[in-house]
């Protein structure tokens, strides 16, 4: 008898201390010794949408307006919206927001398309410097903001939610198929920053603190 | 071990902390802060290695690794620059390029055979008779090359990489670099400063001469360093050598880690908005006979050995110099205890009077207009011959150290790498840049200035210019800085002497390659008369020092030897890495980045054998039998499962989605009906077929598209590009990774399918080319297509990637009673080949059009040509008899299949084999080939040429396609 379940593309090689099953996903809520260094959280189960239409003005997924300028993001009530280009935005329904998904024809669910992790901690940008040549500390960029560019030589969407000291952190997505190699590379680069897997609770607490 | 100074304020060592290391099997000790070279010197070692060609003894020379003299094998790693590498506990150090030892090298006799090895001798000797060359070449290769490494040597250590972004990057952490960094940082800019030594300070760092108001230069250097390191806007990368600089403000380098760092070395790639080159000067080597004999060293080397490492380089020193720094060093070293027999200065006049007076006060003989002509001593200098620069008068002096330097020369590597044109300036004797690339500035001694305040001011000016380039200050501030610069002393006259008055048989212009002045003369006399050619023919500057030693002397000497007047003299090209770098450092962490399907692990567990296919890692075989006999027979006779998740998958939606489909696909896509799959192809404007796949309708103006694996990454761009002028309202989302695909194929496929669904999947309810959306186990949403790529009853299940594991297990469980088995990409390749279903890229290449491969039936000729990409070209190609045709063939006499890519020939090449295999279904070898149309007729004999087949040929015969189940009964029933 096959146990029907959904499998995340992310594996940290470590069993979580506490999990929760949601929509057939087994979600890590907490890990032992999550530590004070960098944290990496698997968010691949988080609902993500592609909103794409010739005219995005007036489009308000989950009631939140899409930023006007490509590269800008907005985080409101657990909804993160990132303007990708003139006709496209990515939308994240972060944990805790249980609103129904929009049914508009111009919305495509892309949850399965990418792996998604959050990386938080004061050294996050020193860490990112090892895996990406994007300029996260550009003073002109005010969080939250979206970069579409390489991380570990793979095209990614990276949303910086905070550049602020201990609260610094970001969300990274890339094609799901890269899951094994991407996580291996990130964990390897994170060793010097004491990067540890953390659970969704730590992520939610971080988002709440922003 | 020598007694070392341990109280100097300029020391970079901690004499209280011993570091034990092993040299040639014996235990030695250095101190913390020592380089390997300084520790060896302190232990009395003078000969570090032997030279490349003549096996001459070599020792300390620049202390900055400008040549290969002190490259050694350290912890098994050859060619380690021991002057730049800090000593660590337990290191094992060995000499290299020696037969015996560096002291007694059995190949040392080669030095006497220099007459037999003139410049370029390997180009013109030992070639006749021709059979000698292979033997000679082996011997030359045995003796040539520096260092040895085993092919399976594994580089120890951790090699990393960083890609910082910044506003301003400053190359060089000397006084000009530091003031530049401070000036830019003061404007609120982010600054990175790179310094190749493990500390900041540059040429202030080891000098006790006065800076201003009683403050010594080294004190000023330390003060600036403290300011820089305390500035939050400045990031200091010490022990970071620049290896590349490019005109788009990209600067690369490598950083050597300390014990506290998480890396041994790391590659650094800095993208900045502005670059400041403050690399300062090196000393231009003085060329005279035996100018590289151990004991001969540059001014900075001798002084830094004493000031930074506490080691007096010798007891009896002789100086032959061409600049005031040489005089200053002689005075300082005298005060530290070295006897100075003489200071010869190639300049007749122009010396700093205060320095001349200081020499006189110490009774040091100063010979103006004199130069060293020969260093004596078999393995180490013990005497030097001097002469007036016209060679008229000579004198000999005993010594154990000869400090020699022709003059200063700017470090122009970053400038030449950034394609900046350099001009030789007769006054300074420097190569200078008249024009810099946008947002690139230079500062410090590279400009020919020597006054400490001028150097600092030039740094401040460059920092402000960089700030202006970044929009952080205005023109008035630049003007003020320029005015301050003008008020200070400018460039100083430099020494122009290149060689002492010698014949040059043993006067080395390049130490790395053992290139002498005589070699250069031979090269020019052979007709290679410009520096770039001289460099290649004589090898001068081709060694690991990357022209550090010969860089500026070579063009100057070439001009001098030919008495060139009015001809621009410029240094030869340098290329990255400008400083020798471990390949391991360039490799960095070297993680492979491949995509894997959602059921990758399950297939590996089932003994799948992986191959890399584009960005994906896929299972090609499920056994060591690469003919895949069992896999193929199982699909033909039973049921198999294939992971097809790598297929490109897209959602296309919006009011104009159909228009976009009509533009891109050759078929009439308006005929697409709900519940049906439409197979079609895309062409480029030349009618060449670039992709194929299926399209299904999900709803009104809503489509699901598949493409080949290889084209998935370009498909969205392709649609957008070919509709760019139309303003159509459609959207396209690449959901390749969202959906996994399992192909269930074989006569028992329906039976397995029926076990996991309650839907009617009979042939009537779900016929060939049908499409259904359904739920498995009430949970897993799936798009199911009835296809037949492998020529059997087949279903393709497209489900969310996260559910792929569950679906795979469901099918495996359902198929257990039938003996369901996996099949991989190679089995699929054979199965579809038997059916003559093509794979683009396998049965086609860039020039192959839709008609060539027999897919013309897909093209709807009634669509307006202008609305279909490639249609115009297809119409023109339709009646072109010169095009290739795809044909099927069988091998004669039940012969084996030819290799893919083999050529179809007669007296010339007439085509090639696309795919051919020994078919288990047909019990004979079959294949498809692209051949000239006149060979396409059924029954034509094909002569096939394979690589390395000599005069042997194999033969096939054109037969009708497909080979297997020509009526399609099996896949449609």
Automatic annotation (TrEMBL), chain A:
UniProt-listed InterPro entries: TrmE/GcvT-like
Superkingdom of the source species: Bacteria
Gene3D superfamilies associated with the record: Probable tRNA modification gtpase trme, domain 1
Protein name: Aminomethyltransferase folate-binding domain-containing protein
Species this protein is from: Desulfocicer vacuolatum DSM 3385
Automatic annotation (TrEMBL), chain B:
Domain (Aminomethyltransferase C-terminal): residue spans on this chain: 885-965
GO MF assignments: iron-sulfur cluster binding; oxidoreductase activity
FAD/NAD(P)-binding domain: residues covered: 167-426
Pfam families for this protein: Fer2_4, GCV_T, GCV_T_C, Pyr_redox_2, SO_alpha_A3
Keywords from the named record: Oxidoreductase
UniProt domain GCVT N-terminal: residue ranges: 600-863
Keyword Oxidoreductase (UniProt): yes
InterPro entries hit by this protein: 2Fe-2S-bd_N, 2Fe-2S_ferredoxin-like_sf, FAD/NAD-bd_sf, FAD/NAD-binding_dom, GcvT/YgfZ/DmdA, GcvT/YgfZ_C, GcvT_C, GCVT_N
Domain SoxA A3 residue range list: 506-588
Keyword Oxidoreductase: yes
Similarity-based family: Belongs to the GcvT family.
Protein name as annotated: N-methylglutamate dehydrogenase subunit C
Species the sequence originates in: Desulfocicer vacuolatum DSM 3385
């Amino acid at each position: 008898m096959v146990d029907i379940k959904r499998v995340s593309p992310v594996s940290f090689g470590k069993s979580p201390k506490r999990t929760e099953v949601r929509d057939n996903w087994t979600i890590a809520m907490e890990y032992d010794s999550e530590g004070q260094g960098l944290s990496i959280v698997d968010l691949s189960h988080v609902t993500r949408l592609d909103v794409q239409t010739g005219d995005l003005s007036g489009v308000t997924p989950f009631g939140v307006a899409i930023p006007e300028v490509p590269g800008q993001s907005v985080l409101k009530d657990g909804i993160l919206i990132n303007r990708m280009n003139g006709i496209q935005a990515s939308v994240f329904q972060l944990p805790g927001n249980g609103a129904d998904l929009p049914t508009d024809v111009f919305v495509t669910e892309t949850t399965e398309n990418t792996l998604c992790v959050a990386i938080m901690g004061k050294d996050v940008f020193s860490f990112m410097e090892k895996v990406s040549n994007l300029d996260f500390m550009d003073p002109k960029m005010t969080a939250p903001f979206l970069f579409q560019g390489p991380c570990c030589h793979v095209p990614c969407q990276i949303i910086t939610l905070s550049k602020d000291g201990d609260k610094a952190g970001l969300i990274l997505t890339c094609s799901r198929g890269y899951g094994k190699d991407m996580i291996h590379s990130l964990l390897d680069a994170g060793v010097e920053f004491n990067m540890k897997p953390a659970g969704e609770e730590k992520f939610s607490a971080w988002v709440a603190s922003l | 071990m020598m007694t070392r100074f341990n109280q100097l304020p300029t020391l970079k060592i901690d004499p209280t902390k011993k570091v034990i290391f092993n040299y040639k099997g014996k235990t030695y000790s250095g101190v913390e802060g020592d380089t390997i070279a300084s520790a060896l010197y302190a232990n009395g070692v003078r000969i570090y290695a032997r030279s490349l060609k003549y096996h001459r003894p070599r020792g300390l020379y620049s202390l900055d690794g400008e040549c290969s003299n002190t490259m050694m094998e350290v912890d098994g790693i050859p060619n380690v620059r021991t002057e730049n590498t800090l000593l660590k506990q337990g290191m094992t150090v060995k000499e290299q390029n020696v037969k015996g030892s560096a002291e007694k090298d059995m190949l040392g006799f080669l030095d006497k055979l220099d007459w037999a090895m003139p410049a370029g001798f390997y180009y013109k000797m030992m070639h006749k008779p021709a059979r000698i060359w292979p033997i000679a070449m082996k011997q030359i290769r045995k003796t040539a090359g520096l260092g040895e490494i085993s092919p399976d040597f594994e580089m120890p250590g951790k090699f990393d990489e960083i890609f910082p972004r910044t506003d301003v990057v400053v190359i060089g952490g000397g006084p000009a670099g530091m003031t530049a960094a401070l000036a830019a940082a003061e404007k609120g800019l982010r600054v990175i400063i790179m310094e190749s030594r493990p500390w900041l300070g540059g040429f202030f760092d080891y000098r006790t001469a006065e800076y201003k108001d009683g403050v010594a230069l080294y004190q000023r250097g330390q003060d600036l360093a403290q300011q820089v390191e305390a500035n939050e806007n400045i990031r200091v990368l010490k022990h970071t050598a620049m290896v590349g600089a490019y005109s788009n403000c990209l600067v690369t380098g490598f950083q050597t880690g300390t014990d506290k760092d998480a890396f041994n070395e790391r590659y650094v790639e800095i993208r900045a908005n502005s670059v400041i080159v403050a690399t300062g000067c090196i000393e231009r080597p003085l060329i005279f006979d035996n100018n590289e004999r151990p004991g001969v060293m540059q001014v900075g080397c001798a002084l830094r050995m004493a000031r930074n490492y506490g080691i007096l380089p010798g007891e009896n020193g002789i100086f032959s110099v061409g600049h005031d720094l040489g005089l200053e060093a002689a005075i300082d070293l005298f005060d530290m205890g070295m006897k100075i027999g003489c200071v010869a200065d190639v300049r007749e006049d122009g010396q700093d009077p205060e320095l001349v007076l200081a020499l006189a006060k110490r009774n040091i003989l100063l010979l103006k207009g004199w130069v060293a002509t020969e260093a004596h001593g078999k393995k180490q200098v013990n005497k030097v011959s001097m002469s007036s620069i016209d060679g008229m008068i000579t004198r000999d002096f005993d010594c154990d150290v000869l400090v020699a330097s022709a003059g200063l020369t700017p470090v122009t590597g970053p400038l030449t790498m950034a394609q900046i044109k350099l001009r030789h300036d007769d006054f300074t004797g420097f190569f200078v840049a008249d024009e810099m690339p946008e947002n690139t500035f230079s500062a410090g001694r590279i400009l020919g200035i020597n006054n400490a305040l001028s150097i600092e001011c030039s740094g401040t000016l460059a920092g402000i210019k960089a700030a202006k380039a970044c929009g952080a200050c205005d023109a008035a501030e630049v003007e003020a800085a320029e005015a301050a610069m003008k008020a200070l002393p400018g460039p100083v006259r430099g020494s122009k002497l290149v060689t002492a008055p010698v014949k040059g048989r043993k006067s080395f212009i390049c130490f790395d390659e053992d290139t002498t002045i005589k070699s250069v003369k031979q090269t020019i006399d052979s007709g290679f008369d410009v520096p770039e050619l001289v460099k290649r023919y004589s090898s001068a500057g081709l060694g690991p020092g990357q022209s550090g030693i010969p860089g500026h002397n070579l063009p100057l000497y070439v001009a001098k030897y030919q008495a060139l007047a009015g001809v621009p003299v410029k240094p030869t090209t340098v290329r990255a890495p400008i400083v020798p770098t471990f390949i391991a450092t360039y490799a960095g962490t070297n993680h492979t980045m491949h995509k894997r399907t959602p059921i990758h692990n399950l297939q590996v567990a089932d003994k799948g054998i992986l191959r890399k296919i584009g960005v994906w890692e896929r299972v090609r075989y499920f056994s060591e039998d690469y003919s895949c006999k069992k896999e193929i027979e199982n699909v033909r006779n039973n049921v198999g499962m294939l992971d097809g998740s790598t297929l490109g998958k897209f959602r296309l939606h919006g009011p104009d989605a159909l228009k976009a489909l009509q533009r891109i696909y050759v078929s009439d896509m308006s005929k697409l009906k709900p519940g049906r799959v439409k197979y079609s192809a895309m062409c480029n404007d030349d009618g060449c077929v670039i992709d194929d796949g299926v399209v299904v309708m999900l709803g009104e103006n809503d489509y699901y598209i598949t493409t080949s694996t290889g084209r998935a990454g370009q498909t969205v761009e392709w649609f957008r590009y070919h509709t760019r002028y139309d303003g159509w309202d459609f959207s396209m989302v690449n959901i390749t990774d969202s959906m996994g695909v399992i192909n269930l194929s074989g006569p028992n496929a329906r039976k397995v399918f029926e076990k996991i669904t309650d839907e009617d999947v009979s042939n009537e309810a779900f016929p060939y080319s049908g499409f259904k959306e359904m739920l498995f186990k009430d949970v897993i949403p799936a798009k199911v297509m009835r296809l037949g790529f492998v020529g059997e009853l087949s279903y393709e299940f497209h489900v969310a990637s996260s559910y792929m594991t569950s679906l795979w297990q469901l099918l495996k469980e359902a198929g257990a009673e039938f003996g369901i088995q996996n099949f991989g990409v190679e089995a699929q390749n054979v199965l579809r080949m038997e059916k003559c279903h093509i794979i683009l890229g396998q049965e086609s290449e860039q020039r192959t059009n839709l008609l060539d491969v027999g897919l013309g039936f897909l093209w709807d000729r009634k669509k307006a040509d202008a609305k279909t990409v490639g249609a115009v070209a297809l119409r023109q190609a339709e009646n072109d008899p010169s095009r290739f045709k795809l044909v099927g063939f069988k091998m004669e006499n039940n012969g084996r299949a030819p290799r893919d890519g083999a050529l179809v020939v007669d007296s010339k090449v007439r085509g090639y084999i696309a795919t051919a295999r020994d078919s288990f279904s047909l019990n004979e070898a079959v294949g498809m080939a692209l051949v000239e149309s006149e060979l396409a007729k059924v029954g034509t004999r094909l002569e096939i040429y394979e690589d390395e087949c000599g005069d042997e040929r194999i033969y096939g015969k054109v037969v009708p396609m497909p080979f297997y189940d020509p009526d399609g009964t099996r896949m449609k029933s």
